[in-house]
Amino acid sequence: MRLSKRGEYGLRAMIILADTPNPEGPYPVLQIREISTREKIPAKFLEQILLTLKNAGLLHSKMGVGGGYYLAKPPSKITLGHIVRILDGPLAPIRCVSQIAYEPCGCPDAKTCGLRMVMGDVRNAIATILDNTTLADVAQRVEAARSS
Amino acid sequence: MRLSKRGEYGLRAMIILADTPNPEGPYPVLQIREISTREKIPAKFLEQILLTLKNAGLLHSKMGVGGGYYLAKPPSKITLGHIVRILDGPLAPIRCVSQIAYEPCGCPDAKTCGLRMVMGDVRNAIATILDNTTLADVAQRVEAARSS
DNA sequence: TTGATAGTCTACTAAAACTATAGAATTTAT
DNA sequence: ATAAATTCTATAGTTTTAGTAGACTATCAA
Questions:
Q1: Which of A48, B26, B76, B92 is most buried, taking the most CB atoms under 10 A from its CB?
Q2: Residue A93: CA atoms inside 13 Å, Cβ hemisphere, count?
Q3: Chain B residues with CB inside 8 Å of A81's CB?
Q4: Is there a contact between A58 and A14 (Cβ–Cβ < 8 Å)?
Q5: Inter-chain touch A145–B111, beta carbons under 8 Å
């Protein structure tokens, strides 16, 4: 039930992008190197991850001097579930309970497959959390923890 | 967030072992070949899995003619969480929220790490389901689905 | 217009994990 | 003895993961 480094790094980067205040404009723009240094992520690896996130429409970027990455939408509109799915694929433990990548499993009757029932519950539990937690929610929780 | 084939096969085998009624005695004894045929699991692979489960204390076995595998405890005492942990390792998406295989992550302060908070919730959601679902519960749900 | 900065894109590689397969050894019942 | 089972260790093929490399393109400022 593990999250890959790819997924972890991507989430950390998005959280930082949402959480860094920008006095100069509407959104914070961070460079790969900045994020990689702050979060101790290999720069070239992070580069790939951010590019993937960009191509999926979650990030925008600006090339050249003073450029970098910034969120394509407000933090309150980006869910962790979306990020994880892009980087790590379906949330479901087994394909036959996946909403986005369903595949039939080998069981004779899906309706009465015990494993399928339980794993369906697990999928729903994971999806309920990740699809209902936005980057804004994360920022808020961090803030609350800091001030306590 | 995927369950490996190993984990899936192991769970299916345990569910079958719990669900097969045995008119001759207190517990059903099934052979590797029987399970592998019924569930379409490669026999040699299943062999390893059952052996692992046996060494972990969840199964007992009998060698020789008329032998096979049977549950070491009543189905109501065996949780899916236990089985998954034996075959697939910790339930936690990242190590820093694992109860049984904790490792510190790179974040500067664990108390205020947003990713850690959310993944802690995910871990708890998964563990709540799998640690509170026994083989007996699964059998009951299957029975209910069959008769409806 | 040149140089520095920063993202884009594709390919590649090493290591680990996953999914098995092989085969010899051991135990048990008849 | 023989057949039926599990036991145990090694190994092999494939896929995934994690990371590296390098050439290319866009932007800005002097």
A1: B92
A2: 28
A3: none
A4: yes
A5: yes
- The pLDDT confidence band at residue A25, using thresholds 50, 70 and 90, is low
Q: What is the pLDDT of residues B116-136, one digit of tens each?
A: 999 999 999 999 999 999 999
Residue A60 φ then ψ, to 5°: -115, 165
- Reported as type and span, the H/E element at residue B70 is strand B68-71
Encoding tokens for residue B28?
A: 């059903």
Q: Which nucleotides of D are covered by protein (CB under 7 A)?
A: 3-10, 16-22, 25-29
User: Distance (Å, rounded) from C-alpha A120 to C-alpha A102?
Assistant: 12
Exposure b/e, B20-58, CB count within 10 A at least 16 = b: beeeeeebbbbbbeebbeebebeeeebeebbeebeeeeb
Q: Encoding tokens for residue B94?
A: 């990242």
pLDDT band, very low/low/confident/very high, at A108 (cuts 50, 70, 90): confident
Query: CB–CB of A106 and B39 under 8 A?
Result: yes
In sequence order, what are the beta bridge partners of B62?
B68
Burial of A129 (0-12, 13-18, 19+ CB in 10 A): buried
Tally of CA atoms within 13 A in the half-sphere of B10 that contains its CB: 27
Are residues A53 and A10 in contact, defined by beta-carbon separation less than 8 angstroms? yes
Hunting for tokens 């936690």 — which residue is that?
Answer: B92
Tens digits of per-residue pLDDT, B88-112?
Answer: 999 999 999 999 999 998 788 899 9
Alpha helices in chain A (DSSP H): 5-19, 32-39, 43-55, 80-88, 114-131, 135-146
